[in-house]
# Entry
Amino acid sequence: MKDSILVINCGSSSLKFAVLANAGQDTLVEGIADRLGANGSSITFKFEGQKNVIELEDGSHKNAVSHIKNWLSRHPNIESSLAGIGHRVVHGGETFSKSVLINQDVIDGINECAQFAPLHNPAHAKGIEVAFELFPGLPQVAVFDTAFHQTLAPEQYLYPIPMHFYREHHFRKYGFHGTSYRYISQRLEEIASGSDQQGVLVAHLGNGASTCAINKGQSSDTSMGITPLEGLMMGTRSGSLDPSLLSFISKAENISADEALDILNKKSGLLGVSEISNDCRTLEEAMESGDQRAKLALDMFAARTAKHLASVATTLESIDHLVFTGGIGENSSYLRQVICNHLKALNISIDSTLNENAPRGESLNISSKNSNTNVWIIPTNEELMIALDTISLIQH
Ligand code: ADP
# Structure
């Protein structure tokens, strides 16, 4: 039976993939091609509990997809079950407000949105073209990180700058992590029936991090902007700050505005403040052994996350649920606790025992008895969402 989907997340230098079967519930094989376009690229397959790494002499995206195809041809049961391919696409601009079946117009649209995602969108378009070439006949679907936020009202998505920038250049807030937020909204409805008619705050905290307010199932505000730089402090991104800093940094270092922007994107955040690492786990270990820089970085991260949760909450009528997700949100009991400590004024509080003992990979309500808001940990699953969208679009 043809019911499995190849999910592809094609970045500029990496390509993650997975084959999901049984309505996206089972992962048959998954893996990642790394360091594409550079020396030392490789592709890793995880199958039946075993990891197999293959060095790639030709580190092109096409060669990575060819290896996936070759692997599939050696596993004909999986290959013959493929019904379609689902691609994650970072930026859909104002063109794409939901997932779509891919044709040439869609590829052109993805390329047109590349001005705001110059590293990601061209890589996605390339991945799609290669997949059409190597898997002729399989329908393909694009799932956009921005699409879920196309429900924002103009007073939320417009920047208070001269309007012609929006009219002529589409400069506005787009928001990201939309596939994760859509998954969380649906999953929450499964475990807290009626939440799709309520006010929900979500903190998606990974290496990239953002917050979202979901009002009756629709995104009403989110912290990321025209690019993922706005909003929270992240692994290496500064998040929101006074834009004058861009000019101060470029003058102080005698560098261009683009180079200063690069510092805000790649050398700031947890990494810039701690001067140790962008990785939350590494910083928690350093903090536990007494490193004050690591503690400061984590505490700043928590304070700014709380601030951006409160900020997007202004678009809700009530805060019925708060969900933590992403690698940090799902695993860091320390940060969940400090973030909620900052939200006391909103009557949001968690039970420290439940928080500290939360089992990995499971959905759990960790609110304290007197919290006004249900506080949840819910593992996100963007691949599942991509597979489900693909199944639904190719069946029509
Ligand atoms: P992204 O998808 O944005 O690359 P992830 O959602 O995978 O990121 O999250 C990565 C982050 O999650 C890293 O900072 C990592 O340290 C953190 N993380 C993962 N597991 C743990 C853990 N057990 N405790 C604290 N942080 C964790």
Summary: The pocket of adenosine-5'-diphosphate is lined by residues 206-208, 235, 279-281, 284, 326-328, 331-332 (CB under 6 Å).
